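Exercise 3.2. Students should predict the tertiary structure of the chain below and write it as structure tokens, then compare their answer with the key that follows.

Predict this chain's 3D structure.
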Amino acid sequence: MKGRWPMSTFDYIANSLNVKGNVIKKCIHSEQQIEFIMELNRAVVQCPNCHAKTDRIKDYRWQRIAIGSILHQQAFVRLHKRRYVCPCCGRTFFETVPFLQRYQRKSKDLQMQIMVSCFQKRSFTDIAADFHTSTTTVIRYFDRLHFPHPQHLPQVLAMDEFRGNAHGQKYQVSITDVEHNELIDILPRRDADWIIR
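Answer key:
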């Protein structure tokens, strides 16, 4: 079933993806998902190799990008992506997509939503179910997060080992602030050299 959406909705979707102009060409709406057909505006781009300017197109390819949920349905962008060719050095390269990192199939915003959900007290499996992705993907995004080490240590530290399976080790060590009942760090191993670090 093909759905008709007013153009203002297309503009809203394009603006939320940080894209200017009339780039959404069509919307395909089914019971399970919403898919927006998109083609970015043609532009003069700079070759990443020799920095010459070009607008010569070699070919196109379709890329499907998950952008989150709209009306409790999975939303995707099917992007008609250009591959440019440099007239000076002959190198080919794809156009840059403002809402997508290289080699990714999820928008920057969706990746950020998944990472923010990792701060809640929820399992990776629950987060994966909410965002219609795999648990492995959620864990991979969680591993990108950097947690700062404390600037100063508390008066009383408690160290306890527990059975786990991180980094191929049987036991890990938790370090907690006893006075404030806060977890400070989890060490992947219980060896003395890891604890001394």
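Discussion points: Strands lie at 24-29, 33-38, 45-46, 53-54, 57-70, 73-85, 92-94, 157-163, 171-177, 182-187. The chain has a mean pLDDT of 88.
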